Amino acid sequence: MNMLVHMCCGPCAVYPVEELINEGINLKGLFYNPNIHPKEEYEKRKDNVKKFSDITNTEVYYIDEYRQEIWDSFNGEQNDRCDMCYKMRLYKVAKFAKEKGFDAFTTTLLVSPYQNHNLIRKIGEEASLMNGVKFFYMDFRHGFRAGQNSAREMGLYRQKYCGCIKSKY
Question: Any idea what the Cα angle at residue 149 is, between residues 147 and 152, rounded to 5°?
Answer without folding.
Answer: 110
